[in-house]
Amino acid sequence: MVMERAKRAGAAIQIAQQPIKQPKRADLVAEEIKRLITEKDLKPGDKLPREVELQQLFSVSKSTTREALKSLEVQGLIKVTTGPSGGGTIVEVPLARTLQLLQNYLFFKDVTIDDIYTVRQLLEPELAAGAVPHLTDDDFTALEANIACCDEPAAAHANRDIVRQRQEDVNFHDILAAANPNPFLRFTCELINEMIRQLIEFRNDTPQAEHERFGRANVKIHKAITEAARARDADKVRELMVIHMTEAPRYVKRMKGKLRGRLILDSEIRKRASGRGD
After folding, report:
1. Are 107 and 261 in contact (CB under 8 A)?
2. Which residues form the HTH gntR-type domain (predicted)?
3. Which domains does the chain have, with CATH numbers?
4. In this predicted model, what pLDDT tens digit does every residue of 229-258 receive, in sequence order?
5. What angle separates helix 234-254 from helix 208-230, to the nearest 10 degrees?
6. How far is CA 160 from its chain centroid?
7. How far, in Å, are 58, 90, 101, 140, 167 from residue 73 at the CA level?
8. Potential cystine with 161: which of 151, 157, 246, 255 (Cβ 3.0-4.6 Å)?
9. For the chain, first and last CA: distance in Å?
């Protein structure tokens, strides 16, 4: 017993003697810049003080300041430009960057398509119902254009374009999400939609007929949801979305869809952002 206590005491002393790792100066500056953003209530489009001003404000070197700004840029909080009028500009963190960070976490978890659709079944009906009073004429035009795109004859598309057509189905849900006034619900559903677009894949030997069957089912239910939304019938929209979210995973599994366990690359985020023109 005495020997055991002595060992524990020795181990405690050894731990206490280990040096505490100090954060890098650039990390400390990045934290201070975050405080500055918060205290000044800076919004996307607002500029940070110039590099030289940040150096003077925090009494650090140019290299430390640039390293701190680069860290914040990697986090998606700012965009850094060079030149006389350059510096850091506040930006809204892109959804694709958020998904990348989430997927870094989920990469080590056993997430399945069923897991994703279980959450969709809970959230998507409320998202759609909550959007109904806020949908504008432009929103309905966008919903109908999306349906028309997905309703094009599949025979006119190569197989890879059919898959893209199925991904376009998800954009219907993004249009509804954008109209919902609840920012957290909207963000969560948009994030799930982005996961579906980027991470669900289908085997090459999946029959084209299965893609077509799934496409027709999506078009049919999307038309019904749009019609109910035009009538401002939120309860009907909720009911139809429950049906939709229950049927969709059955089609995905029948098409041998699976969730890719992979890390999303920066190059993919840049390519997607470039494709949107933002």
Report:
1. yes
2. 23-94
3. 20-90 (1.10.10.10), 95-276 (1.20.120.530)
4. 999 999 999 999 999 999 999 888 887 777
5. 170
6. 23
7. 19, 9, 14, 36, 29
8. 157
9. 68
